[in-house]
Amino acid sequence: MKTVLHKSNTRGHANHGWLNSHHTFSFAGYHDPNRMHFGVLRVLNDDQVAPGQGFGTHPHDNMEIISIPLEGDLEHKDSMGNTTVIKEGDVQVMSAGTGIQHSEYNKNTDQEVKFLQIWVFPNKRNVEPRYDQISIRDIEKKNAFYQVLSPNPDDDGVWVHQDAWFHLGKFEVGATDSYQIKKEGNGVYAFILEGEVEIDGVKLEKRDGFGIWDTESFNFKSTSNSRVLLMEVPMSLDQIGR
């Protein structure tokens, strides 16, 4: 088993006034050659957007982009004609493929919006762009991890062009669970959204990140009320579409 621990206070940070962002991996003005990615997980940004502010129209291509709102409402518009609002309890995916333009704005003028922006390298290049979002309220479980993303359109959650599986979990103090790696060669990056937990005895706090690979499974314990995101991804960059 191999592991890497990224404490919350070691993340890159950029405060633009309208946007307060923490970067787990190198992004924009934050560059650390030792923090470029975790397998095919390229970006994990923890964003807070001021009331009524947001990201103007900008392009993406050949990336799987996942947005998970934590608080507030985020309005999405894109060049495919989609205009939607995502909020806490939703998960959004955008396969940029051959190219797409989109904007993201805080829908509200009286409160911040907080969300995770996650980029995963795809295993297929130049696919037709696509967009989808779901509410997880019908699939969420108590004191157990539940799937919100996979490679399979017929499974629970959204799907991506990559052998990746994401799980969320909301746990009470003392709750335990275990996780089985879905595909050989994959690893899991755990991001602690709230509370304090232990993964195979390693103590983790709010906004810590913990990568684990070269194992078939690991054990989880919540030492306070907590919320956790698990991102299972291929560790080899050979899994990126060329």
Please give a structural write-up.
- This protein is mainly β and 242 residues long.
- The chain has one domain (2-239): Jelly Rolls.
- It is built from no helices and 22 strands.
- The strands form four sheets. A seven-stranded mixed beta sheet has the order 1-20-17-22-15-13-14, with no helix packed on it.
- Strand 2 and strand 3 form a beta hairpin.
Could you outline the blueprint of secondary structure elements for this entry?
Blueprint (H helix, E strand, L loop, with lengths): L1 E5 L5 E4 L3 E5 L17 E9 L4 E7 L3 E8 L1 E6 L4 E5 L2 E6 L4 E7 L6 E8 L9 E6 L10 E5 L7 E2 L5 E7 L4 E5 L5 E9 L2 E3 L2 E3 L4 E5 L3 E6 L3 E9 L8
Parallel strand pairs: 13-14
Antiparallel strand pairs: 1-20, 2-3, 3-4, 4-11, 5-10, 6-9, 6-11, 7-8, 7-10, 9-12, 13-15, 15-22, 16-21, 17-20, 17-22, 18-19, 18-21
Helix content, binned percent: under 10%
- The CATH architecture comes to Sandwich
**Beta-strand content estimate:** over 45%
CATH topology: Jelly Rolls
Structural class: mainly beta
Task: Sketch the topology as an H/E string, one letter per element.
Answer: EEEEEEEEEEEEEEEEEEEEEE
How do the strands of the widest beta sheet line up side by side?
Answer: 1-20-17-22-15-13-14
Q: Can you identify the CATH superfamily?
A: Jelly Rolls
CA-atom Rg in angstroms = 17 Å
Number of structural units classed as domains: 1
